[in-house]
């Protein structure tokens, strides 16, 4: 693993966590014009907007679509037959490479509420970061079930 691949993995993990924060919605009482506000929840929300280079008055309703449209080079949606509990197994593979090594964001419905970020060098996986992102996991599972081959 190189420093570059590790740094890139951490950068993409930060984006994933920022999307997760925005999927939770705008905090109660959030004022986009009050940048001096010290409330932790508002600061976390503001930091997520900054991480994704979004304006402070951004409406998070479309964050997943906006993130995929602006950052993903390719998205592959997969859905398999239902398991014993009548739960559709899904997988989303998001190619996220821009100015750095090849990076994939993977969501597999059999992996709890985890999103995995794999970074490659010369075609070989060299770094992997796993983040807990329950809201993003649920949204990606729903999209994969809807969009994936049946």
Number of strands: 5
Strand % is: 25-35%
Rg of Cα set: 16 Å
Helix content: 25-40%
Determine the N-to-C terminus distance: 37 Å
Biggest β-sheet strands, sense, barrel: 5 strands, antiparallel
Output the structural class: alpha+beta
Mean pLDDT: 86
- Per the principal axes of the C-alpha atoms, what is the gross shape? globular
Low-confidence stretches: none
Provide the succession of SSEs: HHHEEEEEH
Write the layout of secondary structure elements.
Elements: H1 3-23, H2 40-51, H3 63-71, E1 74-82, E2 88-95, E3 103-108, E4 114-121, E5 124-132, H4 134-147
Antiparallel strand pairs: 1-2, 2-3, 3-4, 4-5
Helix pairs in contact: 1-2
Question: What does this protein look like?
Answer:
- The chain is an alpha+beta fold and 150 residues long.
- 37% of the residues lie in helices and 27% in strands.
- The protein is built from four helices and five strands; from the N terminus they run αααβββββα.
- It has helices spanning 3-23, 40-51, 63-71, 134-147; strands at 74-82, 88-95, 103-108, 114-121, 124-132.
- A five-stranded antiparallel sheet has the order 1-2-3-4-5, covered by helices on one side.
- Helix 1 crosses helix 2 (40-51).
- The longest helix has 21 residues, at 3-23.
- The mean pLDDT is 86.
């Amino acid at each position: 693993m190189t420093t570059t691949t590790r740094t890139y993995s951490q950068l993409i993990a930060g984006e994933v966590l920022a999307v997760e924060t925005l999927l939770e919605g705008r905090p109660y009482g959030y004022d986009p014009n009050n940048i001096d506000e010290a409330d932790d929840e508002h600061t976390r929300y503001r930091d997520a907007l900054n991480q994704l280079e979004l304006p402070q008055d951004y409406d998070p309703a479309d964050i997943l679509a906006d993130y995929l449209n602006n950052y993903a080079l390719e998205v592959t949606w997969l859905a398999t037959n239902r398991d014993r509990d009548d739960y559709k197994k899904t997988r989303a593979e998001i190619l996220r490479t821009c100015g750095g090594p090849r990076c994939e964001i993977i969501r597999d419905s059999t992996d709890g509420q985890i999103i995995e970020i794999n970074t490659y060098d010369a075609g070989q996986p060299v770094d992997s970061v796993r983040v807990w992102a329950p809201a993003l996991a649920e949204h990606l599972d729903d999209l994969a079930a809807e969009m994936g081959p049946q």
